[in-house]
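Human:
Take a look at this sequence-structure pair and walk me through the tokens.
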Amino acid sequence: MMKTILFATALIGISLTSIGDATADKKMKGNVRIDGSSTVYPISEAVAEEFNAQFSRVRVTIGVSGTGGGFKKFTIGESDINNASRPIKGSEIEKAAENGVAFIELPVAFDGLSVVVNPANDWVDLLTTEELQRIWQPESNVMLWSDVRAEWPKEKIRLYGPGTDSGTFDYFTEAINGKSQLCRADFTASEDDNVLVQGIAGDKYALGFFGYAYYIENTDKLKIVPVDAGDGPQIPTTQTINSGAYAPLSRPLFIYIAQKSADREDVQAFVNFYLENAPELVGEVGYVALPAKAYELAQERFAKQITGSLFANKDTVVGMKLEDILAIQ
């Protein structure tokens, strides 16, 4: 599902970090085109609102077609920035190269994929990663809640999750099933996380997953499920996501900027504003801010226009701190 939000007028908001003098702010014009992840959307939306309070003549459009859908546009030069809830894939890097699209990769926040049920569900105390795999794997024979544990109700599990173009879907299937896109097909899918929230909130026997911010926004409608990866059950919180204790469902979120776009004054101003104000705005929309050093290193990478992906090769960066990854030149 695609939706586009247009920020074309100045909005009244809190005064955040200034960039440039007031005269330059008023005169700057432009059109910053963003697409991609519904998970990263709330962060970029918040940044765009505050940015337009200062740069009122720069139009910022934000599409939500999923991480993969956004990369399809980004790699052929149709957008300036792609919101991404996973690192760019090798095939997407190749497509970008074919079309002469060099890119700058910047992490902007941490997220913890949230496994949720309906508040009326009074039998699920936790789910192990092995149980999640049994539920979500291709050709799963888990059809009823009692197929997970015999003492649970003999009622059909109705599953909800992001669409296959979603980076959240990619990350969850890789973390739980061992390979991106490896998943049973009989679930209600949507690129709009609010549709998933509504579906689970209205269905006692539902089970689903999506980004942490959408759970935080709807705690009155949803019940979080602790996940046990072998070291005891954990729920996503600012502390468990940041520390990595909420494993394996903690992850960084990204924006990707086309290098050609990064040469433009309007895009430079927007990305600098994004990185300078993300520590405050990320928390306001329900995600976890990166360490201050990580934002500093991201600003350096953008200023130097260092292109390519540090995160695409997971074997290289596994176990490394985000700051150490970003320090790689």
Notes: DSSP finds 14 helices and 14 strands in the chain. The first strand starts at residue 4 and ends at 7. The domain at 114-243 is CATH 3.40.190.10 (D-Maltodextrin-Binding Protein; domain 2).
